[in-house]
From TrEMBL, chain A:
It comes from the Eukaryota. This is AP complex subunit sigma. It is found in: Endomembrane system. One of its GO terms (cellular component) is endomembrane system. InterPro entries: AP_complex_ssu, AP_mu_sigma_su, Longin-like_dom_sf. Signal peptide: none annotated. The lineage of its organism: Eukaryota, Choanoflagellata, Craspedida, Salpingoecidae, Salpingoeca. Keywords: Membrane, Protein transport, Transport. GO terms for biological process: intracellular protein transport. Belongs to the adaptor complexes small subunit family.
UniProtKB/TrEMBL annotation, chain B:
GO terms for biological process: intracellular protein transport; vesicle-mediated transport. SMART domains: Alpha_adaptinC2. This is AP-1 complex subunit gamma. InterPro entries: Adaptor_Complx_Large_Subunit, AP1_complex_gsu, ARM-like, ARM-type_fold, Clathrin/coatomer_adapt-like_N, Clathrin_a/b/g-adaptin_app_Ig, Clathrin_app_Ig-like_sf, GAE_dom. The lineage of its organism: Eukaryota, Choanoflagellata, Craspedida, Salpingoecidae, Salpingoeca. Keywords: Cytoplasmic vesicle, Golgi apparatus, Membrane, Protein transport, Transport. Residues 682-798 form the GAE domain. Residues 521-669 are annotated as: Disordered. Pfam families: Adaptin_N, Alpha_adaptinC2.
C-alpha cells in the first residue's frame, strides 16, 4: 500500500505539514501524530532513522530544526524512502530558493502542491524536480496575473 | 482526503462533477480531477468512473498519463473486479519513455499482479522487457533528468525490482530470466551513497524471495554482510532485518550468514537499541553445535551490559541454546552458573528449576557449582532472588563439598576469556559462615518468601552435611515456629520435630536428593520398564497388609495415600520439597514389599512401627526371604539392623553378597527406586569381583537373549572415607570371546557410598559351551592422588545365572 502519511514537524513538536494517504479521522490523527512526534524527537543522532510502530514503519530524517516523518508499509524499501525524503527537501529548496520553516508556514499551499506532485495515492509519482515544480510555477503565474 | 471520508454524502455529488472535469479538454483540470479521484475514490465511484480513467490512461500527455495510472491503482484496490478492464491499457505502459509514467505504470502492474492471479501469470511474459528496461537504466550513462547521486532514477529501479520480486516468486522460469540482471546490479552498484544502497537492498530482498540459484543468494548475503560493516546505522538496520528474515525462513542460506557472525556480534555494541535487538535475535538464531562456545560466550559477555528489557529474554534463550548444543557437561554447568550469577534476577521459575536440574545431574560439578554460587551471593549484595534460591538449594545439597572442598575458584568466567575484577581465590568458608549466610537470607526482609523457604530447607539439610553444627541449625530453625509466614511456620515446626523426636532417622531423611527425572519421556519409560520387570518376576500381587502399611505411612506424611509409583513420581520430580522426598522414598518401598509377595507379619499401626516398617523395608525383606517371618520390631531395632548393614550378609548364605544399596542407608536405598536394577538385584545372582582401597566392584551377570551372550552389570561402590575419582573399569576376554562395554554412569565415587554408584554394562559373547571368564582391570585415584591400576582375573561366574 506504500506510504501512509507524510509529516513535517519542527523541533518543538508542532506539525507544519501533514498529508495522509489513508483516511483517518482528525482525532486519531492528532493523537497518533503526538505519539509519533514524541518518538522521533527522542531519537538521538546515534540511532537509526527507522522505527516499527503499530504495524507499520516510520522513516524520518532531520534537517536542522525540521523533522520529515514518513509512515510506510512494512514491505517498503526504507532506504529508498529516506532518499525520497531528501528529494522532497531538495525540490522544496529549489522552489523556495533556500527553504526554511517560515517559507513552508507562509506558503503552505505550495508545500502541499509539491507533495501532491510527488506523491499520489500513497505512491511516488514523479522524481524529476523540474517537472514537479513546472505546474506550480504555472499556478504562480496565474496568481500574479489575477492580482 | 484531509477532511472527506468515503461515507460522506458529498461524495455522491462529487462523482458527477469529477466526470465532467475528466472530460474537460484542459489537461490541468483533468489532472486535478484525477488527483482528487485518486485520493477519495470509493468502490461506487470506482465503478462509475473507471471508463473515464481508462480513456485518460491512453492519452498522449505524460502528465495526465501518470496521474491516471495511479488513479487506476486506487480504483482497482477499491474494486478488484475492475482489474480486467485495465489489462489492455497496461500493454503500452512499459514502452513509455517518460520515467514518471514508467514508475507509475510499474506500480499499476504490481498492484494488478498482487490482486489477480491471472494477471500474475500473464505478466510473467513481461519479465524480459522489464529486465531490458532495468539494464538500460543501469548501463546508460549520466541522464541529468533523473539522476540521484550518480544512480539513474533509483526509484524506478527499486520499483521494477519489486515487480520482478513478485513475478519471480515461486516461479523458476521467471527467476531464471532475471538472475543475470540482478547479479549484475548486485555486483556493479556503487555502495558509497545511500541511493546505491537503497537499490542494492531492494535487489537483495528480491534475490531472497525468488527462486534464485545458490551463488546469487550467497552474493546477496555477502552484500548484506558488507552493509553490516558500514558506518551508517540505517544500512546496518536494514541488513540485520533482512538477515533475520532470511535465517528465520530457513533453507541453505544460513550457512552464508554464519560467515558474518562476528560482524553481527559486533552490532550488539551498537548504541541504538533497535539495532541491538535485531542483532540479538539474529545471534540466537545463528547458534549451532559448532559455534556454541564462542557465540554463547559473546552473549554472556553482553548479558552483563544488556538492557534490562533484554535480560529475561536472553536468559531464556541462552538456557535453551546451552541445553540444545552444550559441547560438554562442564561447559553446560559453567554456562548456567554464569547465567544465573550475572542475571539471577531475570531467571524465571521454570528456568531456575532447569538450572538446578542441570547442576544436580552432573554430580562431578556439584562442588564447583556450590562454590561459585556461594561466592556469588557473598561477594556482592545481590537481590536477585533466583540466584539466592539456586545458591540456597546447592548449599543445602552440597554444603559439605563447600566447606571441605578447598578454596573457592577465582572466577566464574571459564566460558569466556575476559576476567572479572574479583580475581583471586578465596579460602573455603567455615561451616559457621555458611549457616550464617543462609540465616541472613531468611532474615533479610527484602527477600521473597520463596527464597526464605529455600533457605530454611537448605539449613535443615545442612544439619546432616555438617553434623557438628546440627545444634545451632536446630536453634535457628526453631526460631521460625512463630513466623508469620505459614509455610515457614510449618516447615520450622516439622523440622524441629524431626530434630527432637526423630533425630535418629534425620540423617536418612535428609539424604542427598536423587536426581530428578527432568523429561517426562524418561519418567514414562522407566515406569514401563519397572512394570514389565514386575510382571516378569511372576506377577507380584501385593499383600493387603503390606499395602495398608505403605498407605498409612504416606498418610502420615501428609500426602495422598496412593500406592502407585507412577502417581508418586511426578510429585517428587521437581522436588526441593522435603516431604516430597519422603513420598518419593515411600512408594518404592511399598513396591519392593509387594514384590516379595510376603504377607506382612504382624506390623501394627503405631507411628514407630510404621516408620520402622518402611525404613526397615529391605531388612524385612531379607528376613522374610529367609522365612523367618517375624514382624517388624521397634524403630531402633530395625534402624539399627538396617544402618548397621554389614552384619546382614552373614545372615544370608544363599546370596554371596548383598546388593550394595541397602548398606548406604535406608532412604538412600528407597530413593533410588527410579533405577530398575533394584528389582532385578534382589533376584539376580551377584558376587564381588574386586575389592580394594574401599572400592568394591560387584558383578551382576545374566544371560542375554541369544544363547552364548552374557550381560554383566558392574556396580562400583565406595566404602572408604575418601573420595574415589577417575574410576575406570575395563574388561578383557579370551580371544574366542567378544566384549562390548557401555559407558559408565560416572567416574567418581563419594565416600561411604554417599553419591550415586557407578554402573556399567558389559556385553560378552562367548562360544557355546565355553565357560565365561574375564580379565578385569580397574584404575582409580584415591582422594585425588596418583592413579592406581589393579588387574584381576574373574572366572567364578555362577552356573545358574
Amino acid at each position: 500500500m506504500g506510504l501512509r502519511f507524510f509529516l513535517l514537524v519542527n523541533k518543538q513538536g508542532q506539525t507544519r505539514v501533514a498529508q495522509y494517504y489513508q483516511y483517518r479521522d482528525v482525532e486519531t490523527r492528532v493523537t497518533n501524530e503526538a505519539e509519533i512526534i514524541r518518538k522521533c524527537l527522542a531519537r538521538t543522532e546515534k540511532q537509526c532513522s527507522f522505527m516499527e510502530y503499530r504495524g507499520f514503519k516510520l522513516i524520518f530524517r532531520r534537517y536542522a530544526s525540521l523533522y520529515f516523518i514518513v509512515g510506510a508499509d512494512n514491505d517498503e524499501n526504507e532506504l529508498a524512502i529516506l532518499e525520497f525524503i531528501h528529494m522532497v527537501v531538495e525540490t522544496m529548496d529549489q522552489y523556495f530558493e533556500g527553504v526554511c520553516e517560515l517559507d513552508i508556514m507562509f506558503n503552505i499551499d505550495k508545500a502541499h502542491f509539491i507533495l501532491d506532485e510527488m506523491i499520489a495515492n500513497g505512491e511516488i509519482v514523479e522524481t524529476n524536480k523540474t517537472r514537479i515544480i513546472a505546474p506550480i510555477r504555472v499556478i504562480d503565474k496565474v496568481d500574479k496575473l489575477s492580482s | 482526503m484531509l477532511l472527506l471520508d468515503e461515507g460522506k454524502e458529498l461524495h455522491l455529488m462529487v462523482t458527477n462533477s469529477l466526470k465532467q472535469d475528466m472530460n474537460n479538454p484542459n489537461p490541468n483540470i483533468a489532472g486535478f480531477a484525477l488527483c482528487t479521484l485518486g485520493a477519495i475514490a470509493s468502490a461506487e465511484m470506482a465503478r462509475d468512473l473507471a471508463d473515464e480513467v481508462e480513456k485518460l490512461l491512453r492519452s498522449s500527455s505524460p502528465a495526465l498519463k501518470k496521474k491516471a495510472t495511479l488513479c487506476a491503482v486506487r480504483l482497482i484496490r477499491k474494486e478488484p473486479e475492475l482489474v480486467e478492464q485495465f489489462i489492455p491499457a497496461t500493454r503500452s505502459l512499459l514502452s513509455e519513455r517518460n520515467h514518471a509514467v514508467l514508475l507509475t505504470g510499474v506500480m499499476l502492474l504490481r498492484e494488478m499482479a498482487q490482486l489477480n492471479a491471472g494477471c500474475l501469470e500473464s505478466f510473467r511474459r513481461m519479465v524480459p522487457s522489464l529486465v531490458r528496461l532495468l539494464k538500460t537504466l543501469t548501463s546508460s550513462g549520466y541522464s541529468p533528468e533523473y539522476d540521484v547521486h550518480g544512480i539513474n532514477d533509483p526509484f524506478l529501479q527499486t520499483s521494477i525490482v519489486r515487480l520482478l520480486q513478485i513475478l519471480g516468486h515461486n516461479n523458476d522460469e521467471a527467476s531464471e530470466a532475471m538472475n543475470d540482471v540482478l547479479a549484475e546490479i548486485a555486483t556493479n552498484t556503487q555502495t558509497t551513497t545511500n541511493v546505491g544502497n537503497a537499490v542494492l537492498y531492494e535487489v537483495v530482498k528480491c534475490i531472497m524471495n525468488i527462486e534464485a540459484e545458490g551463488g546469487l543468494r550467497v552474493l546477496a548475503i555477502n552484500n548484506l554482510g558488507k552493509f553490516l560493516l558500514k558506518p551508517d546505522r540505517n544500512i546496518r538496520y536494514v541488513a540485520l532485518t533482512t538477515l533475520l528474515s532470511t535465517v528465520q525462513a530457513g533453507g541453505n542460506a544460513s550457512e552464508a550468514v554464519q560467515r558474518h557472525r562476528s560482524t553481527i556480534v559486533d552490532c550488539l555494541r551498537e548504541p541504538d537499541v533497535t539495532i541491538r535487538r535485531r542483532a540479538l535475535s539474529l545471534c540466537f538464531s545463528l547458534i549451532n553445535k559448532s559455534n556454541v562456545r564462542g557465540l554463547v560466550g559473546e552473549l554472556l559477555d553482553f548479558l552483563h551490559v544488556a538492557d534490562r528489557e533484554f535480560k529475561a529474554y536472553m536468559v531464556t534463550e541462552l538456557l535453551i541454546a546451552a541445553d540444545k548444543y552444550a559441547p560438554s557437561p562442564k561447559w553446560h554447568v559453567d554456562t548456567v552458573l554464569e547465567i544465573i550469577t550475572t542475571a539471577g534476577g531475570y531467571v524465571q521459575e521454570q528456568g531456575l528449576a532447569e538450572i538446578i536440574q542441570i547442576i544436580a545431574e552432573r554430580s562431578e560439578f556439584n562442588q564447583r557449582a556450590v562454590q561459585v554460587l556461594f561466592r556469588a551471593i557473598t561477594t556482592a549484595n545481590t537481590g536477585a532472588q533466583s540466584l539466592l534460591q539456586a545458591a540456597s538449594w546447592c548449599i543445602g545439597e552440597f554444603g559439605d563439598l563447600l566447606v571441605n572442598g578447598g578454596p573457592l575458584p577465582a572466577s566464574t568466567r571459564t566460558v569466556t576469556s575476559s576476567a572479572r575484577d574479583d580475581a583471586g581465590e578465596v579460602p573455603a568458608p567455615t561451616a559457621g559462615e555458611v549457616i550464617e549466610v543462609l540465616h541472613r537470607l531468611i532474615q533479610d526482609p527484602t527477600n521473597s518468601a520463596g527464597t526464605r523457604h529455600y533457605a530454611i530447607n537448605a539449613l535443615v539439610k545442612l544439619s546432616t552435611r555438617l553434623p557438628n553444627e546440627a545444634e545451632r541449625i536446630r536453634n535457628i530453625i526453631s526460631l521460625y515456629r512463630r513466623s508469620i509466614d505459614e509455610e515457614m511456620q510449618q516447615r520450622s515446626a516439622e523440622y524441629t520435630t524431626l530434630f527432637d523426636t526423630f533425630n535418629a532417622i534425620r540423617p536418612a531423611v535428609l539424604e542427598r536428593m536423587p536426581v530428578a527425572q527432568s523429561k517426562a519421556r524418561t519418567v514414562v519409560t522407566t515406569d514401563l520398564e519397572n512394570h514389565q520387570q514386575q510382571q516378569q518376576q511372576g506377577g507380584a500381587i501385593a499383600a493387603p497388609a503390606q499395602q495398608q502399611q505403605g498407605g498409612d505411612l504416606l498418610d502420615l506424611l501428609g500426602d495422598e495415600p496412593s500406592q502407585q509409583q507412577q502417581q508418586q513420581q511426578p510429585a517428587a520430580g521437581g522436588g526441593v520439597d522435603l516431604l516430597g522426598d519422603l513420598d518419593f522414598g515411600g512408594a518404592p518401598a511399598t513396591q519392593q514389599q509387594q514384590q516379595q509377595q510376603q504377607a506382612s507379619s504382624s506390623s501394627s499401626g503405631g507411628l514407630d512401627d510404621l516408620l520402622g516398617g518402611l525404613l526397615g523395608g529391605p531388612t524385612q525383606q531379607q528376613q522374610q526371604q529367609q522365612q523367618q517371618g517375624t514382624g517388624s520390631g521397634g524403630l531402633d531395632d530395625l534402624l539399627g539392623g538396617l544402618l548397621g548393614g554389614p552384619s546382614q550378609p552373614a545372615a544370608q548364605p544363599q546370596q554371596p553378597q548383598q546388593p550394595p544399596q541397602p548398606q548406604a542407608g535406608g532412604l538412600d536405598f528407597l530413593m533410588d527406586m527410579g533405577a530398575p536394577q533394584q528389582q532385578q538385584q534382589s533376584a539376580a545372582v551377584s558376587f564381588v569381583a574386586f575389592e580394594g582401597d574401599g572400592l568394591k566392584l560387584t558383578f551382576f551377570p545374566s544371560r542375554g537373549a541369544q544363547p552364548g551372550t552374557y550381560e554383566i552389570k558392574m556396580v562400583a561402590t565406595n566404602t572408604s572415607a575418601t573420595q574415589l575419582s577417575q574410576v575406570n573399569i575395563q574388561v578383557a576376554v579370551p580371544k574366542t570371546c567378544q566384549v562390548r562395554l557401555n559407558a559408565p554412569s560416572s567416574t567418581a565415587l563419594e565416600p561411604f557410598g554417599a553419591g550415586p554408584d557407578i554402573t556399567q554394562l558389559a556385553h560378552v559373547t562367548a562360544p557355546q559351551g565355553e565357560k565365561l571368564r574375564v580379565l578385569l582391570r580397574v584404575s582409580y585415584s584415591v582422594g585425588g592422588g596418583p592413579v592406581t591400576v589393579k588387574q584381576q582375573a574373574v572366572s567364578n561366574f555362577p552356573e545358574n545365572m
